[in-house]
Amino acid sequence: MTHATGIVCSALALIVVALIAAPLAAGAQESLIEQSFGEADSQQPLLLQADNLIYDRKNDQVIAEGNVEVYYNNYSLVADELIYDQRAGTLQAVGNVRIKEPDGAVVKADRIDLTDDFKDGFVRSLRIVTSDEERIAARRAYREDGETTVFEQGAYTPCKVCKDPSGEGPLWEIRARKIIHDKSEGNIYYEDATLEFLGLPIVYVPYFYHPDPTVTRRSGFLAPTFRQSDELGFAYEQPYYFALAPNKDLTLAPVVTTDAGTLIKADWRHRLETGQYRVLLAGAYNEDPPANAPTDSSFRGSIETQGNFRIGSFWNWGWDITAESDDTFRRFYKLDAKTETERSSEVYLIGQSDRNYFSARAYNFVNLTELEDPQGEDLTDRDTLVHPVIDYNYIADDPVLGGELAWNTNVVSLTRDEGPESHRVVSEVGWRRTLTDPMGQRITPFAQARADLYKFTSYEEPLAPGSASTPAEFPGDTFTRQMLTGGADYRLPLVKHSSWGSQVIEPVAQVIFRADNEDGTKPPNEDAQSLVFDDTLLFDIDKFSGYDRLETGTRANYGVQYTLQSHYGFSMRAVAGQSYQIAGSNPFDSGSGLEEDQSDYVAGMYFDVPTMFRLVAQARFDEDTFDVRRLDLMGSGEYGPVRGAVNYVKADPQPGLGVFEDREELLASAALQVTDLWSVFGDIRYNFELDEALEQSIGVKYACECFMMSVKYTKSEIEDRDIEPEETILVGFEFKNLGGADVQTDVTGGFSATDGGN
After folding, report:
1. What's the distance, CA 498 to chain centroid?
2. Which helix (H) or strand (E) holds 137?
3. Which residue of 88, 393, 525, 559 has the fewest CB atoms within a 10 Å radius of its CB?
C-alpha cells in the first residue's frame, strides 16, 4: 500500500485519499479529516501524520494506522489507529489514545468513539488529566454537547505525587457513582460520592460539586478553622465566600466558641477604576462577659477599613482606620496579636513628582494597655489626635552655587483627650555641594536655615515609676525660634581591587556649627522620642528623629567605614566612630549616649550572603569603661533544610524618653524541613528582665502537592484585664481544589493561616 510519512496539510491529505480511493465516484464523499473534525479554520490548518493510510472498499472505511497524529483547531490526537466509517459518519481512535484539548486537559483511553471535532464521544477505560494536574478515571465515559463529560464509576484526585503509605494509590480521592464535568459552568459534580483518605472512606456525600481548575474565584464555603484556647474554649470558624463580581467580594465567617459567645466576621473588598478599598467588621455577643473586661456590655465589636485611590498621575489618597468598642476586644478574640500596645488610624493625601513631595496625614493614636503614671493617674484612655501633619519637600531643578538647594516645611496640630496640646510650623532651607579633588578626597560643605513657630499648652516631664519627686511643670507658650547651621563633611575613599572583589576604607569627619538656643528643649517632645544613637545615626547632621528637639552648639562626628564586595555575591560593611560636643550647650538627655561632651562609641557590622544568610550587629560602648550600653543583633538565614531568624536587644534606660528600666529581649524563630513532606517550626519571645517567655509556639506541618495539614501550639504569658496567660492549639488543613487554609512558615518562623478557596 502507498506509504505516507511526514506532516501533511489538509490539502495534501485530500490528494492522498483521492489517489487511494480512485474507484470512488467523483464527489461522493468529503475528506476523511474534514468530516471528522468539522470545517477547517483558515487560520488553523489541519495536519495529519501516519505510517499508512488505507481505504477499505468493502466496509466503506478509511484507516490511518501506525503512529497516528492529528492536529486541528488547537486539539491534538495521538493513537495507534484511526478508523473513519464513511457509512456511519463516525471516527474511532484505537490503542494508546491521547487527546490534548485547547485548555491543556489530557484525555487518555484505550479506545474513543468520536464525532465531529472531538465534541461528542464514548470512552472506555478512560483517564483524564486536566491542565491543573487533576485526574479523573472511570470505567465508562461519554461526552455530550461538546461541553459536558459524564464519568460512570469514576474517581477524582488532584494528587500527582502524594501517595498513600502503600505507594500504590493517591493520598486522597473522591469516588462516585457518577462524575459530571461541565466545562460551560466550570463545575465538577458528584453523585453518591465518598472521600477516601489513605485508602479509607471517611466522608459520604450523596451530592456535591466544586469548581474545576479554570475557575479562579467562586462563591462557596471555605475550609473551617478549629481552635482550643483557655480564653475562648473550643472555637469553630466556618467562612463563606461570596464572589459578587469580578471586582468585589464578601466573606462572612461566624465563629462559635464554648466560653466567649459567638463572633461574626465580615470582610468586604471592592476594586474600582482608580483604586480599591476594604472593610472588615467583627462583632461578638457574649451573655456572660469576663468580669475584668474593659466593658460590661454583652456586645463588643470593631470596624477596620483601608483604601487607596489615585488622583491623576501624581496624587493619591487613602485611609487606614480601626475603631473598636474597647481596648482588648480584638486581642481577646485573636483578631490581633496580644503584643499590640497601640492602635493608630490615619487618612492621607500624597503628591509626588520628580522633585516635589507633598504629604498631608491625620492620625488618631489610641493606647491599648492599662497604664498609670508614677502618681497613679489613669492614662489608659488618653488618646491623641493629629489633625493634621503636613510635609512638603522641594529640590530645585537647577544647581545653586554649584550645589543642591532643598526646601522642607512641616506643619503639625496635635490635641489629646487629656494632656498637652501642641501646634507648630517649621520651615527649613538646606544647601550642599560635593567637591572631589584629583586625590579622591571628597569635601561636602553644607548650610541650613530653619525657622519655627510653636504654640502649646502646659505639660509635665515624665518621672520614673515610684519616684517621690514632683514632676517639673512647663507652662504653655507661643514663641518662635531660629537656627542657622553650617559645616562640612570630609571623606577619603581608599579603594583596592583584586581578582575576588573590591575593598573600600573610608575615613569620615564632620564639623557642624550651630549657635546656642535656649528654646531647643522648650516645647513638649512629641516626635523626637525614638532617638537610638548607633552607627546609622553617627554621620547625620540632625540626630533627633523629629522637629521638637533642636541640636545646639558645635559638634564633630568622626569615624571610619569599611566595605567589602566580592564577585561571588558576599558583602560586608563595618562602621565605627564617635561624636564630640566641641562648644555650646548639649541638648541630649541622660542615657542617650550623647549626653557627655565625648559620646559613647558606636559600631555596626553587616554581613550578607545572598540566598543564605544576613547578619546585622550594632553596639554602643561606654566612653570610659567600654561597657556595652546597647546591643542589637538581627540575623536570618537558610541553609539546606534549616531556616531561622533572631532579633536580640539589650539596652540601658533612657529616662529622657520615658524608658526607666533596663531592656533585654529575644525574639527567635526557626523551621526545619525534616523530609520532603514534613516540617517543624517554632518561635519564642523571651524577656530576660522578667525571666520568662512572653510568647512561645511550636508546630508541625505536613504538605504535599494536593494536601496540607498544620498543628500549632502556642503559650502566652501576656496579661491585660481580660487578656490572661493562656495556651492555644490551632489546626489548619487544605484539600487542593476543594478549599482550605493557606498555611506557611517563612524565614521568621511565623505561622499564618489565610482562608483560601474558589
Report:
1. 40
2. strand 135-144
3. 88
